[in-house]
């Protein structure tokens, strides 16, 4: 019995080597982080410890842009415009529903547990960096502006953001007010992922309307997607080293863990409890009510992506691994996963919505402020909108300041929350990644039958799916990657037999189409042989 169980464990480790190494790297990073703290290492040493993790994050973020371009366009180009619209509407509605549920759960827990005690503010708290009087209207308008960038190349490294500039008027007013705050719409550093998604969505839908005439463009993006995924899979073998260095470096950079734990332990417990309950109860129940299927296989299939998300604390960097796990282990159609996951990495911020709601009410409890029912509703609505519109802002600083300004709470206590954000950010990211997987599975349940019917109406779409499967199997096969599919071979042989030996000879003799057959139609014309045979000896 023991030997059998040992063989099962060994077999599991062999089949999931990268998963086991990634989970062990998280444990090793925590142990090294706490074990090296008494040594009081220098800043140069800390920089060297963080360096492998920094390079690993940069390499993963480098792949986000080409992956979004290739995956979105290749997925939507294989769908009709009506199906793409239904998929987009279903995805956004699902994400809004889960964000609202996460916010309400966070408000309920922080009200019941009440982690904010005014007595813990005995020491002076440093001022939080101010972002001005952030307006909810400006946040919404920035969201819409970023959806339609004026330059798609500029959107790859800059996004639009409203800032507030203090201007001293040339003529002083009589009431003594000499400073005027004006809004300024400018560009700030950071990839405008939402604008890129909108552009790629429109590009892919237009290609789908062109049909077979745009087949060569679809093939290009399908092969580009396969190349990038193959590259990412190779790079993910460096994940254990990078995750170990990232976690160890974050722990070594903290100042006073004991003081933070004593002051914010109940706050951290509240946020983590909310995230865990949302992950194991709210989202699986919603998934079960919609699909009537067991949610456990989705969780099992996404373990590798969840662990990677916890280690990197970046949903965008985890995007390639999420796609691979969702398609290979959960059986989700690649057209759905390549659309839902990039969109979810931008707007699905269930963890952020719950975290921001808890943080704002926690600050109110610290200042002994009793929020009314209207203010609590304002917090819930603002947290939901801010989590979607400002999901790409690091540490949620602008989101929390936006909500605090909306309900009139002081912003100086925000800096205390950043001391534990290194841990909560990793948990939030893991929750968001798992939520994206459930969202893609729900969308597949709603649209899979329509996609199958559309594939039956278009032969070339079935051929593209066959080519994609061939590209996937090329990694473990010694056969050439570019050969004819079985449907193409059968089509070629059938027409060759029906047209006689003369037609066969003419097709073998020349690979160029005749002048009377210039219409590009992959549905009616047979595919040429993959090579031109050499002439026999007696014919030379």
List keywords for this structure.
glutamate:sodium symporter activity; disordered C terminus; mainly alpha; Proton glutamate symport protein; transmembrane helix; 2 strands; transmembrane; DAACS; about 550 residues
Describe the structure.
With 540 residues, this protein is mainly alpha-helical. Helices cover 68% and strands 4% of the residues. The protein has 21 helices and two strands. Helix 12 packs antiparallel against helix 13.
List the helices and strands and how they pair.
Elements: H1 2-15, H2 17-36, H3 43-62, H4 64-76, H5 81-113, H6 136-147, E1 158-167, E2 180-189, H7 193-210, H8 215-235, H9 239-253, H10 257-291, H11 296-301, H12 303-312, H13 319-328, H14 334-347, H15 350-366, H16 373-389, H17 397-407, H18 414-417, H19 421-457, H20 459-473, H21 486-509
Helix pairs in contact: 2-9, 2-12, 3-9, 4-7, 4-8, 4-14, 5-10, 5-14, 5-15, 5-16, 5-19, 6-7, 6-16, 7-14, 8-20, 10-15, 10-19, 12-13, 12-19, 13-14, 14-19, 15-16, 15-17, 15-19, 16-17
Q: Which CATH architecture would you pick?
A: Orthogonal Bundle
Q: How confident is the prediction overall: mean pLDDT?
A: 75
The number of domains: 1
Helix segment tally: 21
CATH-defined topology:
Proton glutamate symport protein
| Beta strand count | 2
Q: Biggest sheet, strands in spatial order?
A: 1-2
Described by strand count, sense and barrel closure, the largest sheet is: 2 strands, antiparallel
Helix content range of the residues, please? Answer: 55-70%
What's the SSE pattern? HHHHHHEEHHHHHHHHHHHHHHH
Radius of gyration based on Cα positions:
28 Å
């Amino acid at each position: 019995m023991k030997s059998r169980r040992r063989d099962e464990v060994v077999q599991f480790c062999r089949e999931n080597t990268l998963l086991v190494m990634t989970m062990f790297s998280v444990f090793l990073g925590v142990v090294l982080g706490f074990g090296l703290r008494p040594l009081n290492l220098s800043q140069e040493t800390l920089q060297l410890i963080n360096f492998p993790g920094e390079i690993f994050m940069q390499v993963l973020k480098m792949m986000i842009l080409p992956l979004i371009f290739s995956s979105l366009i290749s997925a939507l180009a294989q769908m009709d415009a009506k199906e793409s619209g239904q998929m987009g509407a279903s995805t956004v509605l699902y994400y809004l529903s889960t964000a609202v549920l996460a916010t309400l759960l966070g408000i309920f827990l922080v009200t019941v547990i009440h982690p904010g005690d005014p007595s813990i503010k005995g020491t002076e708290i440093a001022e939080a960096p101010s972002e001005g009087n952030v307006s909810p209207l400006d946040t919404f308008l920035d969201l819409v502006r970023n959806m339609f960038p004026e330059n798609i190349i500029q959107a790859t490294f800059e996004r639009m953001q409203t800032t507030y500039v203090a201007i001293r008027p040339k003529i002083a007013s009589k009431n003594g007010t000499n400073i005027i705050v004006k809004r300024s719409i400018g560009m700030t550093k950071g990839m405008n992922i939402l604008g890129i998604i909108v552009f790629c969505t429109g590009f892919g839908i237009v290609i789908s309307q062109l049909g077979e005439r745009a087949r060569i463009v679809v093939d290009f993006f399908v092969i580009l997607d396969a190349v990038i995924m193959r590259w990412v899979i190779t790079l993910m073998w460096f994940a254990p080293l990078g995750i170990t260095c990232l976690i160890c470096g974050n722990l070594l950079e903290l100042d006073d863990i004991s003081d933070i734990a004593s002051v914010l332990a109940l706050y951290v417990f509240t946020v983590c409890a909310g995230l865990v309950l949302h992950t194991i109860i709210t989202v699986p129940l919603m998934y079960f009510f919609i699909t009537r299927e067991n949610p456990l296989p989705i969780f099992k299939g996404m373990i590798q992506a969840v662990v990677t998300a916890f280690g990197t604390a970046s949903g965008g960097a985890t995007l390639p691994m999420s796609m691979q796990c969702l398609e290979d282990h959960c059986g989700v159609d690649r057209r759905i996963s390549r659309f839902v996951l990039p969109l979810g990495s931008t707007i699905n911020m269930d963890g952020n919505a719950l975290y921001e709601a808890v943080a704002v009410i926690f600050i109110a409890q610290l200042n002994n402020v009793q929020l009314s029912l209207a203010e609590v509703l304002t917090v819930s609505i603002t947290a939901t909108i801010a989590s979607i519109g400002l999901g790409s802002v690091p540490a949620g600083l602008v989101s929390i300041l936006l909500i605090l300004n909306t309900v009139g709470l002081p912003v100086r206590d925000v800096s205390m929350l950043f001391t534990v954000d290194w841990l909560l950010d990793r948990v939030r990211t893991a929750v968001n990644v798992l939520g994206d997987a459930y969202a893609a599975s729900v969308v597949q349940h709603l649209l899979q039958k329509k996609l199958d019917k559309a594939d039956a109406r278009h032969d070339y779409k079935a051929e593209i799916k066959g080519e994609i499967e061939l590209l996937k199997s090329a990694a473990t096969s010694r056969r050439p990657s570019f050969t004819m599919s079985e449907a193409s071979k059968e089509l070629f042989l059938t027409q060759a037999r029906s047209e006689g030996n003369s037609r066969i000879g003419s097709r073998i003799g020349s690979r160029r189409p005749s002048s009377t057959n210039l219409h590009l139609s992959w549905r009616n014309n047979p595919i040429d042989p993959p090579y031109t045979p050499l002439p026999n000896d007696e014919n030379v």
